[in-house]
Design goal:
Adenine-n6-DNA-methyltransferase TaqI, Chain A, domain 2; single chain; 4-stranded antiparallel beta sheet; 19% strand; alpha+beta; 3 domains; elongated
């Protein structure tokens, strides 16, 4: 890749995941491989390679009895510089330590001059800076002063040391074990290209111009990320007003990097609030349906404040389903006839999905199998654990012929075959349902749990059965579209990243 091609694709690379970091790497790679040369003014000869000892002198920090321990520190005086003060290619005075003028004069080494390159030998290997803001001071023993000769510019040396080539040198010579460690002797052996001094200065100017552009791109990306939540909320509000596939597409197009999980939560929230699709006047109202099924709503009107469509009702979950606990592990079954059967743990019950990739078995008395065996369309819900596990719900679809559930997984079996289990699964997994369990759960540090009484007493909306089916169908349609758009988004990101990698690869082969 030529310098012209690199500059043409500069913006495209920046927009790839991790693109700005790749750009910085590419800029330095180009700079050190003669691709950012001013071809009209540069020599036709190849740059010679030199070792660092040929173009610089080296000065360690004072390791004698005069080393500035904390006892020698003063509130104002001569800066005493450690690795933490090296920032953005310069020496930062923030949180600076100081030693007295008297003590500074006693030091046998490690005194900096303007233009020195300060290089970290221990801990943050290779971290470095040019002494610009601070031109008089002393260094900690973990640093090394590299003082350039008249043959090499300080900033050219700095950019070399922080380049991928400089990082490769660190990996080659790092002799640390528990703590990363370099020796000054090995730093002296670093090999670097040496353009003419005038060309070094032109290269540094171009590198710093491009690095400043990288800084601008990074700042723009951070600003977009800062504004993204506002933009996302606006788009979600627009979708809430008209939850159509067209508007869902528009959200992805307009935001560029919308959170698919946020959209999924919005879809479920609208669904369980009766706002996803319009109500049909010909639907059998929920109250009449419950009476026809021989079920009675025990939730009083004053026990809920959220408004529902007029054809809906709110019921306790126990009004429509029988909830039971599962097998307790580790029971004493001596003297009883037993059988070993597969069972579901909390780890198997995801939100909206039963994960059967790892199924364990438990010994159970044969006369208890019927009690704990799952049936198709049972709704399973997790008791708790980590915050994301509280109240997770999924439907059992008979994936295993005879399967049990442990006591940390509740099983709910519906009182009528006409009731749609997936409606309740959607509700419990929605932000509205999750908020109930979060508020009702017993909480400790990073852990939460619910009990069977709270599951049975959970107030749930009950739309007309026909509307339940239409809502579930619409949720499935929109969720499938989100999945598709998310896949497209991920594919675009992969292509952008692949393009950035291809640029790096083309650099290494040209």
């Amino acid at each position: 890749m030529t310098a012209a091609e690199f500059l043409i694709h500069f913006g495209e690379i920046a927009n790839a995941p991790g693109g700005v970091a790749r750009l910085r790497e590419l800029v330095l790679n180009f700079a050190l491989a003669e691709r950012l040369r001013d071809q009209e003014n540069s020599s036709v000869n190849e740059w010679p390679s030199v070792t660092l000892i040929e173009v610089a002198s080296f000065h360690n920090g004072d390791r004698s009895k005069n080393y500035p321990s904390k006892a020698f520190r003063v509130t104002r005086g001569v800066p005493f510089i450690n690795a933490g003060h090296l920032a953005n290619g310069d020496v930062s005075l923030e949180d600076m330590d100081y030693i007295s003028e008297e003590h500074f004069e006693k030091l046998g080494g490690g005194k900096i001059e303007a233009g020195d390159v300060l290089y970290c030998l221990r801990g943050s290997l290779g971290k470095c800076a040019v002494a610009k803001s601070v031109t008089r001071g002393a260094i900690a023993s973990s640093l090394l002063i590299i003082r350039p000769s008249e043959r090499i510019a300080s900033n050219f040396l700095y950019w070399y040391l922080v380049s991928p080539t400089g990082s490769a040198m660190i990996r080659q010579y790092d002799n640390g074990s528990a703590q990363p460690n370099l020796s000054a002797a090995n730093v002296k052996r670093y090999v670097l290209p040496l353009p003419p001094l005038a060309e070094q200065k032109r290269i540094v100017a171009k590198v710093e111009e491009l690095m400043a552009l990288c800084d601008q791109l990074e700042a723009q990306q951070q600003e977009r990320e800062r504004r993204f939540p506002v933009l996302s909320r606006t788009c979600h509000a627009r979708f809430a007003e008209a939850p159509t596939p067209a508007n869902l597409n528009r959200i992805f197009d307009e935001t560029g990097n919308v959170s698919p999980d946020d959209l999924r939560r919005s879809i479920l929230t609208l669904a369980v609030q009766g706002k996803l699709i319009p109500q049909h006047p010909d639907d059998e109202p929920a109250e009449i349906c419950l009476t026809r099924l021989g079920l009675q709503a025990t939730l009083r009107a004053d026990e809920t404040t959220e408004a529902l469509p007029s054809s809906w009702m709110r019921v306790r979950f126990e009004d429509v389903a029988l909830t039971a606990g599962g097998v307790t592990l580790g029971r004493n079954l001596v003297g009883r006839e037993t059988v070993s059967l597969p069972y579901l743990r909390v780890a198997n019950v995801k939100r909206g999905e039963i994960d059967t990739s790892v199924i364990k078995e438990v010994s159970i008395a044969t006369d208890e199998v019927e009690r704990y065996a799952l049936r198709e369309n049972d709704l399973l819900m997790t008791e708790g654990g980590d915050w994301d596990k509280v109240g997770r719900a999924a439907i059992w679809k008979g994936q295993i012929p005879v399967c049990l559930h442990q006591n940390h997984v509740f099983r709910s079996r519906f009182r009528s075959n006409e009731i749609l289990p997936v409606w309740f699964e959607r509700y419990f997994n929605s932000p509205v349902g999750r908020s109930y369990f979060e508020s009702a759960s017993k909480q400790t540090t990073n852990l939460a749990s619910i009990n069977m009484r709270q599951v049975r007493g959970c107030p749930v909306p009950f739309p007309p059965l026909a509307e339940q089916r239409r809502i579930v169908a619409k949720v499935d349609e929109l969720m499938a579209l989100v999945d598709q758009l998310e896949a497209q988004q991920q594919e675009r990101d992969k292509l952008a990243e692949a393009f950035a990698k291809a640029c790096v690869a083309s650099f290494t082969t040209t």
